[in-house]
Amino acid sequence: MPRIHLVSNLPGVNALGDHLRAAGLGPTSARSADALLVLIDRPLDHVEQELLDRARQSVPVLLAGPTVRSLSPDSPLIDASGLTPGRVTPLYDLPLIPGPDGAAVAARLGDFRPRESWVIPEKVAEDVERLLMVRHEMGEHPICTWRPSTGLGIFTLGAGEELLADPRYQRLVGRWLRHALGVTDAGPVKVGLIGAPDVFGVHIDAVDAVEGLELAALCDGGMARPPGQDTDRPARRVDDPDDLVNDAELNLVIVATPTHTHVEWARRALEAGKQVVVHAPMCLSTHEVDELTELAQSRSLLLAVYPDGRDDPGHRAMRTAVHRGDVGEVMWIDVFSGGLRRPAGTWHDDERISGGLIFDRGAVQLGRVLDLVDDQVEWVSAFGHKRVWHHVTNVDHARVLLHFAGGCEAQVTISDVAAAARPGTQVLGSIGSLLAHDARDARDGHGGAPRSLRLLAHDGTRTALPTGPHDATRFHRELADCLVAGWPLAEHQPEDARRLVAVLEAARRSAAAGGAQMAPG
């Protein structure tokens, strides 16, 4: 395992160090390091010669963030790097693009646009590898480099604490380190997909689009496809799902079956030695989540949950605002999803298969609530009404109330009978509120992510917050990074899935008891 020594005086750099450690890249002591990563905002003085000596000893030295700006123009590190820095720009939203030598570093980069200043180089030596570039003033300029002849690299992003804590930036730094050390990714992961066509379409498109994942086999169990659903792909069609999970060619199985069979097929895939992703909600009980988690751990296999709804840019913008403290201490969250909609009568509307209205359609909304409030849920109260749609077994209208240990409360309402309701989310805090309206029409019944997001401060200030473009492959890119490059899949672990299932399970018990308060198990 490569050992990295991190030299820094910047606040927030601990998050980068934790990420590198989780990815198997150190950090460690300078004496035993295989590479040195420097992020510092002051002159290096006598340390410069030591860094040059280490680089001459084939220990890569990578200067990131404000380090280059802190060096004197005649610094020997500048000369050895092959990049002569020029002027520093103001803050920009910087769309990063791969450089001519940076395909491996930029793999699965996505649309990453960090907002930060950067250094426009005056001169770049011919033997400098240009790994990441920025388009600016009718030209393309290197922002991340590596010079094999001297063992020095420069990355002029990473001066701000917010960017240092961004997992996308952390992965770029990690890939830069791997490039300097000559560490390459493993080969593509062959994926098998088992599930219902109305659920697994998102996975088909994403796997096709992500480098490092290859859709090799597909099984829908003969389930009817929605009108217009196209699942014709080069992937091999498998009739029996048991054949798919036992296929020796496959490395990863994505389980997107009806909810009541998640545990069965995830268990079979793990027993067959496959890495496994399960569409949320992972299971119908915490007991099942614990069973799968123990099985995966005992076999050193990945078990992850696809976070339906949580990777949406609207929700991520809301989470960023809440965690940044824009509304102060969160006191109340109110979410409505649905409208007047006659259920189609698919498995989603069958309580025995989907787990009921709260499990099937409340899981997305409750998952978002739990993502906003980092606190223990003390109790859950839920109630359902069955008055209108008698051709299905799910209730027509359900309300779930969560009470957190710190006093915050959240209410999630899911309805197929609310003709006048306006889907959306409100977050009430001690210094302001966030108001969001869903992207999907209320009649869709599922409730999309926030289309517009407004911050209303108690001083009367109103601010429209950007939500960014939709990123349909974010989870799958992070999944591929985990499987072929070893980066930690931090946000999609079984413990997160268990917390959601515990709340859903408590809501089901509460609804059966007429709204009684139930503590999650």
From TrEMBL:
It holds the Pfam family GFO_IDH_MocA_C3. Residues 222-241 are annotated as: Disordered. Residues 189-305 form the Gfo/Idh/MocA-like oxidoreductase N-terminal domain. Gene3D superfamilies: Dihydrodipicolinate Reductase, domain 2 (3.30.360.10), NAD(P)-binding Rossmann-like Domain (3.40.50.720). Residues 315-434 form the GFO/IDH/MocA-like oxidoreductase domain. Coiled coil: none annotated. This is Oxidoreductase. The lineage of its organism: Bacteria, Bacillati, Actinomycetota, Actinomycetes, Frankiales.
